[in-house]
Design a protein that fits this description.
single chain; 434 residues; alpha+beta; Arc Repressor Mutant, subunit A; three-stranded antiparallel sheet; 16 helices; CHP02678; TIGR02678 family protein
C-alpha cells in the first residue's frame, strides 16, 4: 500500500504516463529527468498498486508504461493525426497495419514507402483468405477499383502517421503527397530498439491466438505470463481479491468514473474500508481528485495532464446541449433515457431561446445523439447497445449546472432586464455559459 504521496514532479509525470504511456528525452526532457530521478519509486508504485510495468530505456531515451487491462475501454486508443488537430479514433484495420509496418521495419529499419506497400500487400494477400488479416490491395486492376487502391494507401499512411506521432519512426518527405502520387519518393527510418520496446505482449505464436476464440484474445494479450489454456481459470483469478483490487484501482487511475457495483463479489472492493482507503491513496498519489458516493466514484484531473477529456469545458453547441441534458437527468423518471426524450428536451430549450442551436433547427435528433455521446465519454451515460437508448449513471447526481444568457449591452436609461435562465442551480462540478 502507498505509504506516502509521490513527489509533485513525479506525480505529474505519473499522471501524464497514465494517458500517454510514454515519455521521451527528445520531446519531453523535463518529465524524462523527473522519471530518471525517481525511477525506483515510480516503478514500484505502478507495479504494487496497479500491476503495470514501467520500462525505462536510457539508450533510446524512452520511458514506457505498459498498461494491462482485461476490460479494455472501447472509447480509448490512438487518434489519427490531422492537420486541423486530433482526428477520430484509429479504426481496427489501421491498427493492424501499424503492427504490420512495425514488422517490416524490424526486418528493414530503412525502407521506401513503395517497398513497404508491396511487402504489406504480400503479407495480407497470404492471410486475407483465412480472415486473419484484412484485404490490402494497392494497385487498381481487375476486381480492384481506383478508389479501393487509394483507400488502402490512405490507411497505411495513417498507420505511418501514428508511428511518427509517437516518435517511433522518421519520415523524410510529405506524407500527404504520398496518398495521391504513386511515384512519390518517401523513405521511412526506424530504430530497432524502439520497435522492440513498443509492444508489451508476448509473441502471438507463443500465446497460440489462432487456437483461441476472438473473445479470449484480449485476456491472452494482457497476460503477464503465458495465460492458462482454461478460460475459467482466468475468470476465477479476476474474481479473487487481488484481481478485484487491480480491476478497481485501474479504473480509478485510468477512467473518469468507477462503479463500485462492477464487482463479482457481493460487497464491491471499493465499498470496503480497505479498498476505499487504498483507492483514495492511489488517486491522491497521482494528483487526481475523487468525488465519492456509495454507488459511484467520479475522478477528475485538475491539472488536465492525465486526460484527453475536457468535459464540461467547451463552447460548442453539442457540449452545451450535453450540459443542458445533464441538468435534467437527475429529475428523469426512468433509469434509461432515449433519443426521443433528449430530442424533446432540446426542442423545449429551443422554444424558450429560438436563437440557440439555430444550425440544428431541423436536426434536433442529431444534436440529441451528439449530446448523449459527450455524456457517454464522461461516464455519465452508459451505452446499452441500442443507439437510441442509454442508461443513466449515478454520477449525474454529482453535478449542478447553471446556464446563463449573455446580457445585451444597455444604456443608462434602460432598466435592467429580467433574468432569463433556463436552469438556476448551484454549480458543484461544472458550469457552462451560453
Amino acid at each position: 500500500m502507498t505509504q506516502r504521496p509521490l513527489d509533485p514532479d513525479l506525480s505529474e509525470a505519473a499522471r501524464h504516463l497514465t494517458v500517454s504511456c510514454r515519455i521521451t528525452a527528445a520531446n519531453d526532457p523535463g518529465r524524462y529527468r523527473h522519471v530518471l530521478r525517481g525511477r525506483r519509486e515510480l516503478t514500484e508504485f505502478f507495479r504494487a498498486e496497479l500491476g503495470w510495468s514501467l520500462h525505462i530505456h536510457e539508450v533510446s531515451g524512452v520511458v514506457r508504461l505498459h498498461k494491462r487491462r482485461h476490460d479494455v475501454p472501447a472509447d480509448r486508443g490512438p487518434h489519427l493525426p490531422r492537420r486541423t488537430g486530433r482526428g477520430d479514433l484509429a479504426p481496427a484495420h489501421v491498427l493492424v497495419l501499424v503492427a504490420l509496418v512495425c514488422e517490416q521495419l524490424w526486418r528493414r529499419p530503412r525502407i521506401s514507402l513503395r517497398e513497404l506497400l508491396q511487402s504489406v500487400a504480400q503479407v495480407c494477400a497470404a492471410e486475407a483468405a483465412t480472415g486473419r488479416l484484412p484485404s490490402f490491395r494497392i494497385v487498381a486492376a481487375d476486381g480492384v477499383s481506383k478508389r479501393e487502391a487509394q483507400t488502402a494507401r490512405e490507411n497505411i499512411v495513417d498507420a505511418i502517421r501514428l508511428l511518427q506521432a509517437e516518435g517511433e519512426i522518421t519520415v523524410d518527405a510529405d506524407l500527404e503527397r504520398a496518398v495521391t502520387d504513386e511515384d512519390a519518393e518517401v523513405f521511412i527510418t526506424a530504430d530497432r530498439d524502439s520497435l522492440a520496446n513498443k509492444f508489451a505482449s508476448l509473441s502471438p505464436t507463443l500465446l497460440a491466438l489462432n487456437d483461441r476464440p476472438p473473445a479470449q484474445h484480449v485476456e491472452a494479450l494482457t497476460a503477464v505470463s503465458l495465460p492458462d489454456a482454461d478460460p475459467g481459470a482466468a475468470a476465477q483469478r479476476r474474481a479473487g481479491v487481488e484481481g478485484r483490487r487491480l480491476t478497481a484501482l485501474r479504473r480509478v487511475a485510468d477512467d473518469p468514473a468507477a462503479d463500485p457495483g462492477d464487482d463479482p463479489n457481493e460487497v464491491g472492493y471499493l465499498a470496503t474500508l480497505t479498498g476505499r482507503e487504498r483507492a483514495l491513496n492511489v488517486a491522491s498519489a497521482l494528483g487526481l481528485v475523487s468525488t465519492v458516493r456509495r454507488d459511484w466514484w467520479e475522478i477528475t484531473d485538475p491539472a488536465a495532464s492525465g486526460t484527453t477529456g475536457a468535459f464540461p469545458q467547451g463552447r460548442r453547441i453539442e457540449r452545451q446541449a450535453a450540459l443542458a441534458l445533464l441538468a435534467m437527468l437527475p429529475e428523469h423518471h426512468d433509469r434509461f433515457v432515449t433519443v426521443a426524450d433528449i430530442t424533446t428536451m432540446v426542442e423545449w430549450i429551443r422554444a424558450q431561446t429560438p436563437r440557440w442551436a439555430a444550425g440544428y433547427a431541423e436536426r434536433t435528433t442529431a444534436l440529441a445523439h451528439a449530446a448523449a455521446a459527450d455524456l457517454v465519454a464522461a461516464r455519465l451515460l452508459h451505452a446499452t447497445g441500442d443507439g437510441d437508448r442509454w442508461q443513466i449513471m449515478p454520477g449525474v447526481h454529482l453535478w449542478r449546472v447553471r446556464v446563463r444568457h449573455r446580457e445585451q449591452p444597455r444604456s443608462r436609461t434602460q432598466a435592467a432586464p429580467e433574468p432569463n435562465s433556463l436552469f438556476s442551480m448551484a454549480t458543484t462540478q461544472g458550469e457552462q455559459q451560453q
